[in-house]
Automatic annotation (TrEMBL):
GO terms for molecular function: purine nucleobase transmembrane transporter activity. The chain crosses the membrane at residues 24-41, 53-74, 104-122, 134-153, 165-189, 196-213, 249-266, 286-309, 321-341, 347-365, 377-409, 415-432. This is Putative permease. Keywords: Cell membrane, Membrane, Transmembrane, Transmembrane helix, Transport. It is found in: Cell membrane. Pfam families: Xan_ur_permease (PF00860). It is a multi-pass membrane protein.
Length: 433
């Protein structure tokens, strides 16, 4: 009873109308909704040449650390993990397309976190976010959704390179069919609102791969976690700090900005942390948690760590305080012993997770004003150019520039402001460089 009394006082359980039991259930639910990141993040980042075993450990620990800080310091039931889309941008745009080393890419993530911290001082970050048009905010999420969906289809082998048409349908071999089966399993479970549906889809595809001898059974299912040494503190900040890489730094920062603010605002409303004036209680601590997690994550060896919208699953199950986040954090630490299983999961088994998350991110296009071409065209450019150029930063830059040009030429100067013009200049520099 004494321990429960401490938990009640520290996490304000009674004040928020919850119990230890509700928080444990909520924390477990958030873990199940987020656990797919243990498989997906190493699968994506390892394509850069980073050690996959080390990535498994870092993914679990970075997620556990960010989520723990959210729980103990901000007293918020939010899970944080390497962001989807941002890990793809890290791998496919920076390293594989631009030829940046993964060490330099980690330096870029670190610097974006540092600049993010500066923007968080005195509420600058929120004011900049308020100056960005809603249509662009919506388009960024939708564009990233299409971008990671394309990556998922490519990893599955369903979409392949075609010299005549750029892309085409792949051969429906065993790997592709296994990936499709996992996708349908995950989709049906998500429709039925089964907790951990995406995770079950990944595991189902992996089991089918074992059955059809497409992957080898690990020697053991549990073991001590792989060492972080191959990637820990290997970030190259000096190489990242150059004009030609300001665009990627800017992209990481703004995508994280839109992503984290949107998630924090929507989830805070669900748990009753928004007062009569629309202000969120403890919002500053939540923002700093997000920033600190990105900086620590880069030092550990992973792409941008951000607040996960999957936290809403735990909130729906009853989570109201940071105690739920502590539970989620502990479960991610315990997951470290299952590294042998994670290490053999093939890319086509994790592909369904990318596709489903892409669907969730894309669905917000319903909030665009389809009768206003001045906002719709820039939004459409962002959405379509991110997957077609295989770059979040290029899609984002083209969207900002087109928004400014269209409103200038139509004389709608009221829709423009100094921060937006500044972002437009950064976008132009990014394209030129």
């Amino acid at each position: 009873m004494e321990n429960q009394g401490f938990l009640d006082r520290y996490f304000k359980l009674s004040e928020r109308g919850t119990t230890v039991r509700n928080e444990v259930i909520g924390g477990l639910t958030t873990f199940l909704a987020m656990a797919y990141i243990i498989f997906v993040n190493p699968s994506i980042l390892s394509l850069t040449g980073m050690d996959k075993g080390a990535l498994i450990t870092v993914t679990c620990l970075a997620t556990a650390l960010g989520t723990f800080i959210s729980g103990v310091w901000a007293n918020a039931p939010f899970g944080l993990a390497p962001g989807m889309g941002l890990n793809a941008f890290f791998t496919f745009t920076l390293v594989m397309d631009k030829g940046v080393t993964w060490e330099t890419a980690l330096g870029i993530v670190f610097l974006s976190g540092c600049f993010f911290f500066i923007l968080s001082l005195g509420g600058i970050r929120e004011r900049i976010a308020d100056c960005i048009p809603l249509s662009i905010k919506i388009a960024v999420g939708a564009g990233i959704g299409l971008f990671i969906t394309l990556i998922g289809l490519k990893n599955m082998g369903l979409v392949v390179k075609n010299d005549a048409t750029l892309v085409g349908l792949g051969v429906l071999g065993p790997e592709v069919l296994i990936g499709i089966a996992g996708l349908f399993i995950a989709v049906i479970l998500e429709i039925k609102r089964v907790k951990g549906g995406i995770l079950i889809g990944i595991l189902s595809s992996t089991i089918l791969a074992f059955v059809f001898h497409k992957v080898e059974m690990p020697a053991s299912f549990i073991s001590l976690p792989p060492s972080m040494a191959p990637i820990f503190m290997k970030l190259d900040i000096k190489s990242a700090f150059q004009i030609s890489l300001m665009g990627p730094i800017f992209s990481f920062m703004f995508v994280d900005l839109f992503d984290s603010l949107g998630t924090l605002i929507s989830c805070s409303k669900e748990i009753g942390l928004v007062d009569k004036d629309g202000k969120i209680k403890g919002f500053g601590k939540m923002l700093y948690t997000d920033v600190a997690s990105t900086i620590f994550g880069a030092m550990m060896g992973t792409s941008t760590v951000t607040t996960f919208v999957e936290s809403s699953a735990g909130i729906a199950a009853g989570a109201r305080t940071g105690l739920a986040s502590v539970v989620t954090s502990i479960l991610f630490v315990l997951s470290l012993v299952f590294a042998p299983i994670v290490g053999v999961v093939p890319a086509y088994a994790t592909a369904p997770a990318l596709i489903i998350v892409g669907v969730y991110m894309f669905k917000n296009v319903q909030h665009l004003d389809f009768n206003d071409l001045k906002t719709l065209v820039p939004a459409f450019i962002i959405i379509i150019m991110m997957p077609l150029t295989y770059s979040i930063s290029i899609g984002l830059s083209l969207g900002f520039i087109s928004y400014i040009i269209i409103h200038l030429l139509t004389g709608d100067f009221k829709a423009l402001n100094i921060p937006l013009i500044f972002v437009g200049i950064l976008s132009l520099v990014n394209l030129i460089v």
